[in-house]
Amino acid sequence: MLKSRVKLVENMQFVGTADSGHAVVMDAAPSVGGSNTGSRPSELLLMAFGGCSGMDVISILRKKKQDVTGFEMNVSGEAPDKHPRMYTAIHIEYVIKGRNISEEAVSRAIELSLGKYCMVGATLGKAAKITHSYKIIQE
Amino acid sequence: MLKSRVKLVENMQFVGTADSGHAVVMDAAPSVGGSNTGSRPSELLLMAFGGCSGMDVISILRKKKQDVTGFEMNVSGEAPDKHPRMYTAIHIEYVIKGRNISEEAVSRAIELSLGKYCMVGATLGKAAKITHSYKIIQE
Q1: Residue A134, CB-side half-sphere exposure with 13 Å CA sphere
Q2: Cα separation values, A38 from A35, B15, B47, B59, B108, Å
Q3: pLDDT tens digit string along B5-60?
Q4: ipTM of this predicted structure
Q5: CB nearest B55 (choices: A12, A43, A47)
Q6: How far apart are CA A2 and CA A16, in angstroms?
């Protein structure tokens, strides 16, 4: 059982904390009455997906002795503007920079993350169609 | 289209940013090779759900002229330990403190959030069975 607590601070600003003890500030956009002091909750889902899959992929690439010098992901989501609004499509692009990076290792690491290990992706994948791509930048 | 970028900093630490410009630090637990410098990605889903629904509920209660003096949520999630692991059940408890708070207003606000407005809840609800409860503390 994973637990978190989310507390109203003021206006539309909330602070969340969870088992690990770290706090996250969330706020709404000024256009809907917020003060933009923190992330939108909907943004956290995309960032969580990137973090979750990124941890899997980098772990696997390190085990495969890949010389990764930079790694980032671009995660975008579509959420049609009708109620109940939800993510219906999410694309994750992996950008791996390094020396003699094996494309097969990258492809396999992503496949293992998205197909097996990444809990955030598996959860979001029940609502959204998840697609991915990758770019390898050899240094 | 909502966009975010998640970048590896070091070891298992990632920093995410999204359209609103706010950054969130994520890290894994030491037991799996992380340094616990930030939230687990899986925790972000629960906090995002609390923030998303909390913004709806407090907005509606304010429109209904409810005198809320404190508001927090406890969000817990179950994710059975088999691959692909995902949230299968999430419970959100709303704790509203205030003066002459109408139980009907609270109940209706929650219903509107979970049934219509909260995008994070609608997304997670495709994977997990979402249940809720509320507690009103009259001051």
Answers
A1: 22
A2: 8, 14, 13, 17, 27
A3: 999 999 999 999 999 999 999 999 999 999 999 999 999 999 999 999 999 999 99
A4: 0.97
A5: A12
A6: 13
Opening angle at CA A6, ends A90 and B99, nearest 5: 130
The residue assigned the tokens 């939108």 is: A40
Backbone angles phi, psi at A91, to 5 degrees: -115, 135
Alpha-carbon distance of A56 to B100, in angstroms, equals 50
Q: Which amino acid does the sequence have at A117?
A: Y
State whether B75 and A126 contact (CB < 8 Å): no
**What is the spatial distance between Cα A41 and Cα A26, in angstroms, rounded to a whole number?**
6
In 10 A of CB B95, how many CB atoms?
Answer: 16
Q: How far is Cα A71 from Cα A67, in angstroms, rounded to an integer?
A: 11
Give me the average pLDDT of each 10-residue run along chain A (139 residues): 97 98 98 97 98 98 98 97 93 98 98 97 98 97
- Which positions in chain B touch A123 (Cβ < 8 Å)? 45, 79, 86-87, 124, 127-128
B83-97, pLDDT tens digit by residue?
A: 889 999 999 999 999
